[in-house]
Amino acid sequence: MEPVQGAHTFQASGTAYDAFMGRYSRALAPLFADHLCAARGQKALDLGCGPGSLTAELVQRLGPDAVAACDPSPSFVEACAARHPSSDIRFGRAEAIPFPDNGFDIAAAQLVFHFVTDPAAAASELRRVVRPGGTIGACVWDFDHGMEMLRAFWDAALDLDRDAPDEARTLRFGRAGEIGELFADAGLNDVTETTLQAQTTYENFDELWNGFCAGIGPAGSYCVSLANNQRAQLRDRLHTQLGSPTTAFTLHAVARSTIATSPTTG
């Protein structure tokens, strides 16, 4: 089976995304904004905004008029714009950001670079839209230290199908230094990297499983591609993988966050 990845795997409603991955991106957003040193008086772009987890954090810190965002999913753009009507929310891809040169003090991509078709072009575009001396940042899930929800899902899937398209195997930028190397190649300065830890609590296993059944991202796309009996087997295996929870349980996630500075000359 070919890997299921890219923006087309996120053509879902904002509500569905919030129940699946948004619960993690909301927890991650304030930590990422801290790493970006986002503060009042700056203008910021949220690249690949989704329904707006990072957008909301930036709006709270900078004010709605100081925040812009874009995403290649029309449903996410609609959801983000509805939630932040005073911010400039546009349809657009990372490789062709729909904003002018030098327009922002900060441009940030949260949980985006795993799915960018041309990462070098995206890094160049981030540099283009940020003023000289401004901040560019990206964070992605860490494949070495673990994003428990996805790791448990793919371990369960691999138990049943050795060819399951495990994101740790099929996607880039989940390991130390990868985003930093991309930023350095784009001519950015002062590259620094850290890890951010987020968590979420599920009321029960069905709440977790229903997120996969919404078909969002590579894991959800794989889940809904299965025949009913295969999906039922995967559900049972994942339940066992997580210790057969019968009540509320918490899962943790680690993200790698990399920031850099746009050069002041050249």
Give the low-confidence spans.
1-9
Shape: globular
The main sheet comes to: 7 strands, mixed
Q: Radius of gyration from the CA trace?
A: 18 Å
Strand order of the largest sheet: 3-2-1-4-5-7-6
Mean pLDDT: 93
Cα-to-Cα separation, first versus last residue:
45 Å
Q: How much helix is in the residues?
A: 40-55%
List how many beta strands DSSP finds. 7
Order of helices and strands: HEHEHEEHEHHHEHHHE
- SS content category: alpha/beta
Strand content: 15-25%
Provide a count of the helices: 10
Structural write-up:
The longest helix has 23 residues, at 14-36. The chain is an alpha/beta fold and 266 residues long. The chain is 41% helix and 22% strand.
Question: What's the short story on this structure?
Answer:
The protein is α/β, with parallel strands linked by helices. It has helices at 14-36, 53-62, 74-83, 119-129, 148-160, 167-170, 178-185, 205-212, 217-225, 228-241, and strands at 44-47, 67-71, 88-91, 104-110, 130-141, 189-202, 249-261.
Any chance you could write out the topology, listing elements then pairs?
Blueprint (H helix, E strand, L loop, with lengths): L13 H23 L7 E4 L5 H10 L4 E5 L2 H10 L4 E4 L12 E7 L8 H11 E12 L6 H13 L6 H4 L7 H8 L3 E14 L2 H8 L4 H9 L2 H14 L7 E13 L5
Parallel strand pairs: 1-2, 1-4, 2-3, 4-5
Antiparallel strand pairs: 5-7, 6-7
Helix pairs in contact: 1-2, 1-8, 5-10
Which features characterize this protein?
10 helices, single chain, 266 residues, disordered N terminus, alpha/beta
